[in-house]
């Protein structure tokens, strides 16, 4: 049965009916990665415009617009103005819905329907492909290689053309036909006494009584057990606890050319019983030689199965490393995690999993062991001998010194770590979760992080196995494939010709969109939204489709100005081959290179939803809209001429060596706004997100996540806490909203509970929650909507018939504050709420901050699932700002300008400056020059991405970095500062 898909199906999912798609629409190449959405089976490619009439989705105000087809069109405007509502929730949703309607009613019943967007009519719609940011896979098995399909082609290339080598001797494996084996024996063992053997057991324990009976029934009289020839006897068996090699004696003969027929029969018989392998034993020298129909090491007899594509797949049991199950890393219990603080004694909780002393068996065992050494449980761990600690952790097999006459400890002791390891396989989720806090991820010792079993890693092309290729960055991989044909045999070239063409093509597309620093081994969940989006863009360029409408959501995210040009060229290439491209974007370069621009606004939320300007970039310039004012320089983000002096003290991270970092020592001046910059893949996230933040998080909050390797850190005592504000969603259910996340809803509920009407009725704060029984409407359980299943039509969401969408029961809604019920408050925008709660300081402080970060257009009860990554990040930022700070907090923000218009960046810069003015340190990882130029201190990492990055190129004030002229950031910053204005 086909899997039911949600209406949010986007580029990273494959339709369960993809085969039907490809057959009907002749769009075979695209079905692998992205859902294709057809307006009709023969799209009206002649129509000059996509015409939208009366779009009212979300905050759109009856928008009607003509969008030229076959052009690069940019939708821009202030954050929350309705760009995504028009692009994704109207145009894309309608295109996808129309495509779904081409299926039968029966098929649609499995797929789940799609709601008709709130629009009167859309004409001239092509098949639509959406490439969004939110579709990144969290699966640890999903890698850059698997989602670009390069790894799949590599697997096929290795399965068909690679040469096998023995993992034991390194010799090339050979494969022989029956005739080759016979000819070899006749040539090399002429006139010698030979015993032809068929191996049936190789290196396994057991008594094998039944096997010997079976062999006797087949008519054989002798076997060779562990190198010794024996006659088969009734009830014969071997030691079940020892490892054995057992072969059937097929024939004993003197090798002569005239006996070729007998030898041939014996060889075939031996290969049949030995399942493709056999041995010959030279009776005179007592030496054996292996032969096999399969790949085999002629010295040791190790044989490999014939390679198939799944032999090289870490997601298949045929190829995955058996130790780490194809993940490349294992969870290990380490001594440091079991004994985090060696100054403590065992009785005070020095062995973390045991906790403090209790009168239980394990502590009695430890007490007896220590007593023998004249030590006690109250002795600090660092005063115990190392040898004793090792015995406590790893176990004692027997206590040799125990005197049986004395009542002393004399039993073997399992050890703390072996005990914990056993618990890792427990059926209980709680126990496994408990053990997890004492484990650390380590590279798998069996496969060394390559994820594949050792046999798979001994198939090589040009002396490289598939694992070595997957850890090369794309640039290095491209150069390895250059001229590969000259290094291959004629046979390999004939088989691999088409495969090499496909691989090179896909590598070329990744280079085209500026991702040369990634490697195929990189896990998809470590990619930024912009990187995963550009990977899917590269895949789409590869499909070479024509007449398609592509809709993209800010593909420039996470992209340095240097790489912007490549991205714009990639989008123009998509347009030039005959497609229409719509990009929701704030980037100045992208707007200036568009064929047509739609500026939506004028404000955000209820103040937006209208087209304020449209036309070519030049037309927009002259329109006088907010966007045009920033583009033309009428409005600008002002710089401070005087930079902050800060505290004069630094947080110093020394010797960072993780990923591509080259022994970096970074100084972060405290009490300043610090920007970490550099091209994509230069090592910014490795330094901050994967090294600095985990160090601070472990120090202040005892977090378990380990930082990447580093030398030392100085200055931790100068700050009192660290806060990271990232772009992950604030909640994954519609019940989560800005009011609940920021904690202001708790204050609002307390306020309603304190009203005289609520006190008379005995209502507490819980009465005003829509998540618990009591005050909520029980018909819809506080959701406000009922979902009516319509089988093969989309589910219909209707307001709850009992509460009419108001979430609460009538009694709760009768309690009012300033004439408004709790539902009215949730439906209120942040802007209105600031006025409404002006005399409630506890509530006002939290709402005021939401307004200051530019989220005045959101309603307090807006569903978390409808917020963009940038909005979610600003809600988190507002939550942190709403707390009372100590002036010694270290804030880390990862690309806070994501999804922000120039005007919003101005707001954000003000908020961050206020935060630093209070004495805090704010560190931002950023590409946006508008925010970089207002920083007090810049640390520029590079010069390139991947292996060519990982060093500090320049640091200092924006002016100093621009003047130094080192690295790409400095060059672009110098241009930006020429046109920037300083505040008086």
Automatic annotation (TrEMBL):
Establish whether keyword Zinc is in the entry: yes
Q: What is its main location?
A: cytoplasm
State if Lipid metabolism is listed as a keyword: no
The residues covered by the ABC transporter domain are 646-974
Compartments annotated for it: namely:
Cytoplasm
What's the superkingdom here? Bacteria
Q: InterPro entries, per this entry?
A: ABC_transporter-like_ATP-bd, ABC_transporter-like_CS, ATP_grasp_subdomain_1, P-loop_NTPase, UvrA, UvrA_DNA-bd, UvrA_inter
Write down a Pfam family by its short name. Answer: UvrA_DNA-bind
Q: Which UniProt keywords apply?
A: ATP-binding, Cytoplasm, DNA damage, DNA excision, DNA repair, DNA-binding, Excision nuclease, Metal-binding, Nucleotide-binding, Repeat, Zinc, Zinc-finger
The record's family statement is: Belongs to the ABC transporter superfamily. UvrA family.
Q: What is this protein called?
A: UvrABC system protein A
Organism of provenance: Hymenobacter cavernae
